[in-house]
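We treat protein structure as text, and this decision shapes the records that our systems exchange. This encoding replaces a full spatial description with a residue-level series of whole-number codes. Below, we set out a record of this kind in full and without editing:
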Amino acid sequence: MFPRKLASAAAAAARAGSRGGGLLALLANQCRFVTGLRVRRAQQIAQLYGRLYSDSARRVLLGRLWRRLRGRAGHASAVMAALAGVFVWEEERIQEEELQRSIDEMRRLEEMSTVFQSSGVDRHPPEPNPQTEGSEDSGAKAQLWEMVMEKKHFKLWRRPITGTHLYQYRVFGTYTDVTPRQFFNVQLDTEYRKKWDALVIKLEVIERDVVSGSEVLHWVTHFPYPMYSRDYVYVRRYSVDQENNLMVLVSRAVEHPSVPESPEFVRVRSYESQMVIRPHKSFDEGNLPCLHSKPAVLLQL
């Protein structure tokens, strides 16, 4: 009797599983149908706008849609950008305020360096952050800059990035064998970077913004075995201020629809860098102080 009951129970379970599997398959097919229909509709709308509007008008329209969708849950804005194949500069370009903040940081660092060099202290106090000042956790986010290396023409500080095991670094140095203009041009020249940097796998400008002069770059760099090579997609903007005798270069990571993530590389999504160059005399004479601030990048195997 026992084998017969067992066989009957197994048959009943199989029938139930078959019915459940059929229901799940039906739901899956329905979801695929709805998703495919929406994607086709989005493509048809994009083609229609492509015939009716110019390239600049399409960018304005997609920019408005992007701003409306940014505050909603999910990744609707990213999907819209990917389907349209357009990078929305209104949201991602580097603004004047970002350049000015980098200049202000260099001035504060110069002042603090003078004070702390005379006092012999190797830690800088936390700097005020307008975005967190007055909030409950502003004290937790304030970190000390710790002196890591100090030489005559070179200083290096670091401080922890809250919530991670990474550090943000600041470098303040003076060069005597190169002019400020030469040093600055080397930072901007992507073709020359490919010649002197053997670790570069790919480095090219993806798109430029005619309004601000910002540009999006895709940079792939080799990492030693057994680590995977890294790739960066970032927007950068530079400024040469003749009146105040300053050069500024600011970069930060972005997403671009024409550069999807590749399984061959590890995409670095948390990246930013600020560089400020102030010559002692002019842009074409040597001996320049330079501030470079950037967060460390996690090395993933």
About this structure: The first helix runs from residue 2 to 52. Residues 128-140, 296-301 have pLDDT under 50 and may be disordered. The two ends are 59 Å apart (CA to CA).
